[in-house]
Amino acid sequence: MQLKPLKGQHHVSAITADAKRNYEFYTKVLGLRLVKKTVNQDDTSVYHLFYADERGNPGTDLTFFEIPRAGQTRYGTNSISTTSLRVPKDASLLYWKQRFEEHGVEHDEISQVTGRATLSFRDFEGQRLMLVSDEHNVGVAGGQPWEKSPVELEHAIVGLGPVTLTVANLESTAKILTFVLGFKENRRYKNEEQEEIVVFDTGEGGTGAEVHIEVRPDLPVERPDRGSVHHVAFRVENEEELKRWVEYLKEFRIPNSGFVERYYFRSIYFREPNGILFELATDGPGFEGDESFEHLGENLALPPYFENQRAEIEAKLKPLHTKE
To answer: Which tens digits make up the pLDDT trace of 158-185?
Structure first.
């Protein structure tokens, strides 16, 4: 079956124990726009928050499930160990380093990683994040920052960069990326600890379409909680193409969710051999089907198939005020 190449990262979904502090950090410190305040469709008792560029363009979404009783993650292997965020240029990292110092954000020094300027940092729950400069990027275009962001627009975050997976076994994950998902090995480099990282890319390539794999069989398996990543999603052009992927995964006999309706996009979920959850998600319909562009994220949005449960759902949620 002939399929179009995946277009790069679609979104990354992580776990927080505190939706209010999470909202304040990702909007007021990082300057992302909350484009959708909704619920986890598999557990409607908890929030699902989507932060992105001005309208939630695919490839710019960093999302969080709120699990209020989540403990602290025990970091380890078989995990999505770093989520990177793209900024326009090298000089942007100087701006961000100063901003992190002003806001008390834990961060490392600016460094070069595989030819790109980067700045690693952690949020208040230990979520492992990295800013990566797009100054020399050739590949998937970034998004458009929201003009009402508190961050200077010339330095604002424009989307998701490379996602780093830490695995115990390279070969099994590499086979899924290459033989099944159509990624290609692009290059290898050493990190600061002199461990080899293998880079795979897809589609147009560049910062918005890379997966970096760190091999660490010496580590225990990560026990995820707050501060961890739940899954990474890759971009599929449309619903028709996604349905072709459903059939394609069936041919490989890869256990998967089958076609899943998420209203804002359509999806398939499956785990690669090291246990990391992958999602394939369509570029549309997007986030403006139930809210106007001007008012994205201000109110609790529910897909139509949950509207008849609104009163029950709202009663279980702690109020989260996101209308400025």
So the answer is: 999 999 999 999 999 999 999 999 999 9
Give the pLDDT score at 193. 84
Q: In what order do the strands lie in the sheet with 277-285?
A: 33-40, 43-52, 61-66, 9-16, 229-236, 277-285, 265-271, 260-261
Residue 117 pLDDT greater than 90, yes or no: yes
Could you give the CA distance from residue 253 to residue 249 in angstroms, rounded to a whole number? 6
> CA-CA distance, 64 to 48, in Å (whole number)?
6
What letters, b where the CB count within 10 A reaches 16 and e where it falls short, cover 69-80? ebeebebbbbbb
Count the alpha carbons within 13 Å of 67 in the hemisphere toward its beta carbon: 19
Q: What is the spatial distance between Cα 201 and Cα 174, in angstroms, rounded to a whole number?
A: 11
pTM: 0.97
Distance CA 215, CA 271 (A): 18
Whether the CB-CB separation of 236 and 254 falls below 8 Å is answered with no
- Closest listed residue to residue 33, CA positions, set 64, 65, 62: 62
| Nearest C-alpha neighbor of 283 from the set 173, 150, 143 | 143
| pLDDT recorded at residue 323 | 86
**DSSP-assigned beta bridge partners for residue 201:** 184, 210
Using the CB atoms, write b or e for 18-29: b if 16+ within 10 Å: bbeebbebbbeb
| 94: enclosing H helix or E strand | helix 90-103
Q: Give the amino acid at 109.
A: E
pLDDT in tens, 178-237: 999 999 999 999 988 888 999 999 999 999 999 999 999 999 999 999 999 999 999 999
Tell me what pLDDT residue 2 has. 80
Q: Give me the residues paired with residue 132 across strands.
A: 86, 118
Residues 91 and 240: beta-carbon distance below 8 Å: no
Query: End-to-end alpha-carbon separation of the chain, Å?
Result: 49
User: What three-state secondary structure class fits 182?
Assistant: coil
Domains along the chain with CATH numbers:
9-316 (3.10.180.10)
